[in-house]
Specification:
- The chain has 151 residues and is of the alpha/beta class.
- The chain has one domain: Rossmann fold.
- Helices cover 34% and strands 19% of the residues.
- The chain has 5 helices and 5 strands, in the order βααβαβαββα.
- Strands 2-1-3-4-5 form a 5-stranded parallel β-sheet, with helices on both faces.
- Helix 2 packs parallel to helix 5 and helix 3 packs parallel to helix 4.
- It is globular, with a radius of gyration of 14 Å.
- It binds 1,3,4-trihydroxy-5-OXO-cyclohexanecarboxylic acid.
- The site of 1,3,4-trihydroxy-5-OXO-cyclohexanecarboxylic acid has 10 residues, from loops.
């Protein structure tokens, strides 16, 4: 019997479209396209199907999350700067029965004080932070594992 692909909604938050050019000493030289390519590769290996979106707009991210029920089995999200400010994104995640994994390229807990608090974390199943592009791949593995109920 063929198992159904796990449907993952990947959301990249504000300014992540500039990866590869933006603060490379913090975020590295990989572009968002390259991260997405690696995610697709990993998804193929894991039997997952990705829907990928990038948005600089809080409301658009809220809309994407609000429509996720029935379309996606889990959400992989890098809320970027909204991590530290957005009650709306946190509430959206808490409002849908779709588990979320929060990811960050940098280790937000060893950066400026204002980055150490994530408003999103209490609404997420877990957080992967500090491993560069590998944070996304680890987060994807975790999200697929959550859906398949693996330990
Ligand atoms: C980030 C960390 C955030 O503090 C920052 O605003 C970002 C990227 C990361 O992936 O390390 O834009 O989410």
């Amino acid at each position: 019997m063929k198992t159904q692909p796990v449907r993952i909604l990947v959301i990249h938050g504000p300014n992540l479209q500039l990866l590869g050019r933006r603060e490379v000493e913090i975020y590295g030289e990989l572009t968002l396209e390259e991260i997405d390519r690696r995610l697709e590769e990993e998804a193929g290996r894991l039997g997952a199907e990705l829907t990928i979106a990038q948005s600089n707009h809080e409301g658009e991210i809220v809309d994407l999350i609000g429509k996720a029920e029935g379309r996606s089995d889990a959400i992989l999200i890098n809320p970027a700067a909204y991590t530290h400010t957005s009650v709306a994104i946190r509430d959206a995640l808490a409002s849908v029965p779709v588990p979320a994994v929060e990811v960050h390229l940098s280790n937000i807990h060893r950066r400026e004080e204002f980055r150490r608090r994530s408003l999103i974390a209490p609404a997420a199943a877990g957080q992967v932070s500090g491993f560069g592009p590998a944070s996304y791949l680890l987060g994807l593995q975790a999200a697929v594992g959550l859906v398949r109920q693996e330990g």
